[in-house]
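INPUT
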Amino acid sequence: MPETTERVHLTATYTPASTGMHTLDIYCYRNYLQTDVWNYIDSISLAPVSPALTIDPCNTHVWNTGSNTLAVDAGVAHANEPYIILAANGPTPNFSLDGVLIHLAYDNIFQYTLANKNTAMFSNTYGVLDASGQATATFTTFSWLPQWQGKTVTFCALGLSSGGVRPIQYATNPVLLNFIP
Amino acid sequence: MKKVFVGAGLSVLLLVLTSSSLFAQATASMVANGDFEQGVLNEWTLYGNNNGQELTKYQVLPSVTTWCNKWRPGSNRGNGGIQQDVYMIGGVPYQFDMDIAIKCSC
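OUTPUT
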């Protein structure tokens, strides 16, 4: 039998009905008719269509040595508009500001990230999106904030009005980051 | 906890998300270790019958050899999967993307 390989890119959108943890499940069906079959999954990705906030590495931050890149993609409709990335202890209890639901708790970490935007720890977390409506920021931890160790911190980006002020235009999805030793 | 379900096999290459489908382009991901690039299955939970599953290198994209999650869904294999939890906002559309190669001696 000749050996053949088919390469496929699968794409779809999904709109969850509820907010919270969802299970992404990649299932391999048994094929009773064929035995000489191999499936190779190279990459799996999931992201909000727009505006979106993603983080790399995803989910984990190595305490005291780690660095994560936060990517904002608000689309060309928001090109050259100001943004800010904030964090909190979790996505709840969330709150609304200027009619926009923000999936962050208004807590001490929220206030800390607001006060320390564009510092060594939160590089480029406050600025202007590029012509594509995108921006990248960096989150790095240092030994001088041990109270964050062992926490799960949630990040969210907000679109601001011209001049970097309120009213808030939009809020992205939250991304959760677990701190590991 | 809700389930977002994706199935992959040869005879039926199935993508099921519990809502509507359309085509667009995402740039980054919320999925941890979605590219298996360290050759490990960290962040994923294996379940079911995983006979024939392993991490290996393969050219899923032409001319690019990378780490992949390999399945062999033969008659005595398959019926298993991998899963991980992601935090999603209700009412917000998310885009799912997956690159897969299917090799067959048939």
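end of record. The longest strand of chain A covers residues 3-14.
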